[in-house]
């Protein structure tokens, strides 16, 4: 981890020096602020990431029209940082601003609009308002213009499934997780973290609702197998800075939202324990 932080620190040093050589070009300054914010996110220093994202937003608000996709994108990033910090109300406001702007500035089939709406649904889940999460996400699935097998539809079905799982409505949870998995199989590579997360959630249903430990174990192990594959890919690209940054971005996002890395091992052990009893 220290080695990875050193790489991020080198990049931060580069961008901070770049600021000394940029004068009145707001676009360049905004890009530097945004890149610095991303690096602080990789380092899990979210307060600093938030500060630089807000600096970027201030400059964009001074130079761009009110209804501009870039403004929405920055609000979406700020919402994501608040989300990581468990600041759910500020995160929701930022996601909603992004959603409102995208609705005006973009077509209904644009993925950014779908991402904003998926994030709004996830916030309601994290706030414990499962009814709102289900209603909002179901409405988004019917109004969005993205294709039936778009990965974001998989995320939305997974979010709905998670909300039903938290409500202990295992039938509807399974229905949505299976729909998510069906979409993920055709839209994502077989070793994608989202697929591992879905397997983990399906396993939770078997474990909690049916005490079907064999099926639970089968799905937990599928999730673990994907994690191990990703770990091997990461190791193979250890000297490739771009691959390292992409991997850490995917890992930090997915693991923070669905922390199944250590949990998968614990769940497998728990299944074996209960099977022996």
TrEMBL record:
SUPFAM superfamilies: HCP-like. TPR repeats lie at residues 30-63. SMART domains: TPR. The keyword Cytoplasm applies. Belongs to the kinesin light chain family. Kinesin is a microtubule-associated force-producing protein that play a role in organelle transport. This is Kinesin light chain.
């Amino acid at each position: 981890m220290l080695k990875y932080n050193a790489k991020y620190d080198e990049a931060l040093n580069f961008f901070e020096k770049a600021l000394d050589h940029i004068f009145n070009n707001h676009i360049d300054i905004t890009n530097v602020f945004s890149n610095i914010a991303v690096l602080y996110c990789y380092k899990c220093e979210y307060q600093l990431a938030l500060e630089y994202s807000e600096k970027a937003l201030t400059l964009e608000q001074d130079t761009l029209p009110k209804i501009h996709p870039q403004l929405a994108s920055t609000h979406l990033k700020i919402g994501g940082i608040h989300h990581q910090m468990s600041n759910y109300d500020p995160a929701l406001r930022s996601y909603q601003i992004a959603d409102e702007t995208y609705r005006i500035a973009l077509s209904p089939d644009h993925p950014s609009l779908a991402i904003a709406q998926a994030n709004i649904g996830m916030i309601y889940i994290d706030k414990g308002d499962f009814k709102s999460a289900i209603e909002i996400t179901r409405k988004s699935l019917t109004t969005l213009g993205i294709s039936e097998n778009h990965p974001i539809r998989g995320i939305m079905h997974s979010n709905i499934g998670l909300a039903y799982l938290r409500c202990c409505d295992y039938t509807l949870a399974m229905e949505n997780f299976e729909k998510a998995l069906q979409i993920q199989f055709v839209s994502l590579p077989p070793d994608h973290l989202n697929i591992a997360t879905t397997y983990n959630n399906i396993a939770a249903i078997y474990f909690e609702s049916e005490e079907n430990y064999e099926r639970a174990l089968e799905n937990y192990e599928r999730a673990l197998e994907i994690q191990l594959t990703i770990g091997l890919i990461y190791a193979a690209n250890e000297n490739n800075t771009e691959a390292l940054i992409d991997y850490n971005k995917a890992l930090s996002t997915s693991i923070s939202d669905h922390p199944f890395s250590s949990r998968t091992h614990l769940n497998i052990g728990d299944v074996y324990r209960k099977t022996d009893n």
